[in-house]
Amino acid sequence: MRGEHAERSGERLAPEHLYPEGALSPPLGMIDVRSPIESSRGALPGAHPLPLMSDEERREVGTRYAEVGQEAAVALGWELVGPHLEERIAAWRRVADQGPTAVICWRGGMRSALACELIARPRTLPVAGGYKAVRRHLMQALPAALERAPLLVVSGLTGSGKTELLRSLAHASDVLEVIDLEAIAAHRGSSFGAVTGPQPPQPTFEHEIACALRLHRAGLVVVEDESRYVGRRTLPDALLEAMRKAPLALLEVPNGERVQRVFREYVKEPAQRDGIAATRQALEAATLRLRRRLGGPRTREVLSALERAEADWFDPEAHRAWILLLLEQYYDRLYERNRVALGRDVVLRGDVQELTERLPELAAERGRRPR
């Protein structure tokens, strides 16, 4: 059948060719020919999801394979894919015609070899071992990727604007690499931190982190202080261990500014987007998740304040008391307890302006040191 020549030739790309250290961006185009349900469980950064078979087509072929065998399954596959084949080949070629291209299936077997033969471009090759081998390589290479440049953790009390600082640094400096864990996880990292839309699958989350750590050329890698969990996503063990040992840059802002930021991000903007009732319900649910640590009286105090505030929802003063209560009685205490327990060194401290100026200087200095 078609695809046998590619299988026999042995021309395959090794997984490490997809995200070389220091390449800044993937050097190859990537086509993921897995079915939609497969790629939805774990995507690879930069890969175009262009399946050979739909989920239903793959299910039918798999059933035929289990019942009758490979030859009958292949025949059914051609029958099902045939009416859509021209369109799918055209989509693959739009990627392949832009330059050298890697084709990825689940295990690097028949689907990727067949797609390469159908694409019929000399610089298009399947990836040995497929998605499973690429994922294994990225996870095994993560500790080494973390050693490529020093790691610095931006820390600070809840509402101090750490995420804003990191995102401004990502656009303002090319000497440091900012890895925005909350953006990758689609979550703000606390009980109140869900953002619109679902979080990515755990493998996708891990792949984005690993690739960012492999591709950069910066002298310093900066991340925001996080616990093991960012919403329902879990930091890779190697990254969490490195963060717990890394020095801190401490962002310090007045309480009034923190209250205003919490009001804007968790009260005002969600209500403008989703409505007051839905926002209040989400805040109440988040408060109840903290009940065991916050205590019954304080939990009831926050819930009562939210109820009273509904009539003046867009007035910051209507929310100031419960926001301060949560900050001072829960989040600040939790932060200080964790900071003391880990005993990390504070190498920089200051407000947004000071850290914005000094972090790139520190990155440039670290980048000049021999490693």
What does this protein look like?
With 371 residues, the chain is an alpha/beta fold. The protein has 2 domains: 4-140, Oxidized Rhodanese, domain 1 (3-Layer(aba) Sandwich); 142-371, Rossmann fold, CATH 3.40.50. It has helices at residues 4-9, 36-40, 55-67, 70-81, 85-96, 110-119, 130-140, 142-146, 162-172, 181-185, 202-215, 237-245, 255-274, 276-289, 291-294, 296-309, 320-342, 352-368, and strands at 29-32, 47-49, 101-104, 124-126, 151-156, 176-179, 220-224, 229-230, 233-234, 248-251, 346-350. It has a 5-stranded parallel β-sheet with strand order 6-7-5-10-11, sandwiched between helices. Helix 3 runs antiparallel to helix 4 (70-81), helix 13 (255-274) packs across helix 14 (276-289) and helix 16 (296-309) runs antiparallel to helix 17 (320-342). The termini are far apart.
